[in-house]
Amino acid sequence: MRFLTHQLGTKLREERKRRNLSQAEVGEGIGTSSSYISQLENGERKPSLENYLALISFFGVDFTYFLNTEDNDKEIVGREIKALREKRGWSIGELRDRSGVDFFRIGRAENGEIELSKEELERIADAFGIDINYFFCRYEFNVSRIINSCKSLGLTDNQIHLVVEFINDCLKTNKL
């Protein structure tokens, strides 16, 4: 949990500085103090759900922006590659032959051990006959990122279920 708190703080500081805002301005914008923002940025404190929602609203970013990690993304993309490969009945060797991506890199990516380069993902997408954005725009990909973000905030399973249910309701009514 300490890593995610530190990561949130680092991304918060970067975003605040990118927008040339002071800690006091951000604190005022979300109804807290500059010392609270300092504690968040230094990884000394984890925000409440209410304050986290205020932060993402203040900065106009999506729910996972401050908490998303490459590890989550590479694991999800790796699972997508494996699922597509197995759906087509291909071995890793067949995907290698069709894409030109190294056999061992494909296997390690499918296991979430490494992140493939954009060029490798493009070649794999071409082999499957899909757009590269398929790996990043899927509903399951985004829901998984949101669930991981909720967990890093310390939400209970019931609270996470309510968040996902809320998102599903908004998607059905085109409110997102």
UniProtKB/TrEMBL annotation:
- Record keywords, A-Z: DNA-binding
Membrane-crossing ranges are none
The cross-references to InterPro entries, in alphabetical order and at most eight, read:
Cro/C1-type_HTH (IPR001387), Lambda_DNA-bd_dom_sf (IPR010982), TransReg_Diox_bact_type (IPR050807)
GO MF entries: DNA binding; DNA-binding transcription factor activity
UniProt organism field: Anoxybacter fermentans
Highest taxon of source: Bacteria
Q: Keyword DNA-binding: yes or no?
A: yes
Residue limits of the HTH cro/C1-type domain? 12-66, 81-135
Q: What is this protein called?
A: HTH cro/C1-type domain-containing protein
Keyword check for DNA-binding, yes or no: yes
A GO CC annotation recorded here is:
cytosol
